[in-house]
Structure formats: C-alpha cells, structure tokens
Amino acid sequence: MPTETTSTLLARTPRDLTVAWAQRVVDRAAPGERVRGVATLGVDVGTTTRVRLEVDHDAALPRRWFVKLPSGSWKARAITALPRLPQTEVRFYREVAPALPVARPRALAAASHLGRGFTLVLGDVDDEGARAGRPGDAITPAQAGEVIDLLAGLHAPLWEDPRLGGDLAWLAGPVRRLEDALGTALAVPLMRRGLARAGPAVPPGLHAPALRYARRRRQAMERLAAGPRTLVHHDTHAGNLFWRGGAPGLLDWQLVRTGEGVGDVAYLLATALLPEDRRAAEQALVARYGAALAARGVAPPRDLFERYRAHLTYAFEAMVVTLAVGGLMKDPVAHELVRRTGRAVLELEAFESLRR
After folding, report:
1. What is the pLDDT of residues 302-331, one digit of tens each?
2. pTM higher than 0.90 for the full model?
3. 263 lies in which domain range?
4. Which terminal CB of the chain, N or C, has fewer other CB atoms within 10 Å?
C-alpha cells in the first residue's frame, strides 16, 4: 500500500475531499491515471468522521472510497486525541496489515502527522460485493463460528511472537499505556454514569460488582493481560464486521493492540449474539476457537473457557462506558449492547471469575 506521512493527503473535513485531493491519492496508488470527479455519498460522525465517496477515475482501483478523518464531534476528538486511536489505525494499515491473512478493507492511502491529524482512505467494502454490519446487529451462532475461525487466523500468526517485543512493541507502547491509565482514572465516574443511564438494561445485582471492578480496574487489566500474548482487534462487535457471501472480515482497527486472543472471542459473543443464542452456543464456540488455534499449530490455554468468562467483564465495561460518554453510538443500540453484555456477565459470574 502506498504510504504518505506529509500533509499532501491530509484532510480535516469532508469539504477537503476534492478532485485535486483524490488525484493525489490516485497518483500514489496508480500513477498516470486521471480523476474526473468526486461525489459525497454520505457522512457519519462518531469516533472519527467517516465519509463515503464515489470517485470517477481511470485507475484499476475501487470507485467507492471510505475515508476516515478527525471526528466532527468535540467529545469524540477529546476521547481519541490523547490515546491517538485513529493514528494507531493508520500505522496498523501501514506496518501490520499487509502481512495478515485476515479479510479487511483495501487500503489506498494512509497519512498522519502529529498535531495535524490523519487521513485513512479505504476501498468501500460495499462496492466490492460485501455488506458491512451495524453495531446492534445480532448474528447467528453459525455466523459467530465463521468469525471465530477468522479470529483464530488473526491471532495464531503472532502468538507469543518475539516481534511483539521488537518491531511491533508499539502495539503495547506508550500510547496504549496512556489509554489504559486514562481508562483507569475515569473508570468509576464513567461506570456510575453508564449504570445510571442504562436503567433496567443492567440487572440491579450487577451494580456493586461493576463498581468494584471500576475501583480496581488496574488490577483487572493486569489479570486480563496475563494470558498468552498476540495481536488482537479489541473491538469485535457486529458493527466492525463485514460479510462477503458467508465469509466475514474485520473493520475499524483503531483499538488494535497486544493482548489475549480469547478477549476478542468474549467481546464478539457478548455483544453480537442474542443472550439466548450465546447461552446455547458459547461453550461450543469457545471450544471451536481452541480447535482452530490448534489446527494452526498454537496450543490454547488449558483454562480457555475460564479465561473467556473473565474477559466478558471488559466487554461489559466497554458498552457501559460507551453509553456513559454518549454520542459514540446511538443510545438505543448502546442500551441493547449493555443488556447483552450484562446478561453474559451475570450468567457466567464473570466478575467472580476475574477475581479468581
């Protein structure tokens, strides 16, 4: 993928996505081809501003582009600025993605500059015969099984790999440590606010253990990081999946990091399955993940299901914090995901499992 670190590809707002800007993208991906026009198909503002473009050009490139820019929401910018989440995604597409055997959008250009923002240009998966999911979608256990296989394919290549402490050490570097420190510092007020906003979506019996978890979040994160290290996506809800036929792929790599692979599995099953489907299928799906790792030459932890139970706590925290902050996801969707993850945490006694 062509990369660019100077200001030539940087755009601050959708108004900057002009024919001249698109020509610069094409010049790097397919020199000599001409851009004739750019039309904006849609703009969505969340943790980033996401713009869908129709680009009229001569190159052998996608004609529909998905462009990520700094968020138009001051609240989202404040949340993502210090931990540099979008810049992490830009770096992922430059340095890590080309070697990963995982379906993801095609990257056309990636640019970031400290103090001047970032721009990430991807091929729109909808233009390639795929369908992007939505955060509140409920997938089936059969679809979850396909994503489990995808996650095993993501986790196995870098399982306990020395490069995680070498060339890829930035995945757990100062930016991630700052993010964890901010999460810990704000854990109690955000948990209180999120639980209050959730209302009946969270069973009353979860309030006390959730607040205890928030007060001891640093120790909780240490326990969740105690398993085998690999590359993890860390945000595997249904809205970050796309489907080409029956085959899934992964979108939105802002939270990519070093971690324990089964955390991605817990996040997926707690957020993307209806509670009754998760309840019926989760043991088989976790076992499928272990078998998929073994088939790729990786020995999964013997206490894999216990580790899965413990990691459900983070999925619940993430959804409660999303609701507490507001504006990152539509409130009805956030309420539903809090409900799903809350049921998982309650039924599997996840907070108790984490303490053990």
Report:
1. 999 999 999 999 999 999 999 998 888 889
2. yes
3. 131-355
4. C
